[in-house]
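Take a look at the protein record below with the fold in mind.
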Amino acid sequence: MHKNTSKKGFTLVEIMIVVVIIGLLAAMAIPAFQKVRQDSRESAVSNDARQLASAAQQYMLENNTTTVTVGYSADDGTVGADLTPYVRRIGTGYALSATLGIDSDFTIGHPQIKTDTNTTILTFTAEGQQK
């Protein structure tokens, strides 16, 4: 009598090789993914800073003043009454300086960003350009 054994399937060695390859690919992909996430967060903060600076400059131009106080709610990202006609909402969770002026710098901090100096605070010019 003949045994009816099937030769279909994978050996243990083949499965282990596939697992090792997947592990290597994951080890290379995770740091790259984290770098993209960090760059995306920094880009969002920079965009919000440009919006705030632009709104503040428009407010100062229309109201003939050199400074504006920024009211900001970190919970939902809403911007206070003075700048509401120009920008209603930015990202949430920021810590930002309360007054923007024509020639003064301002800062925005967020716990999820890390700069080259390992700080969570970014400084911007009155025009919204990162320093």
Remarks:
- Helices lie at 12-63.
- Residues 12-63 form the longest helix (52 residues).
- The mean pLDDT is 88.
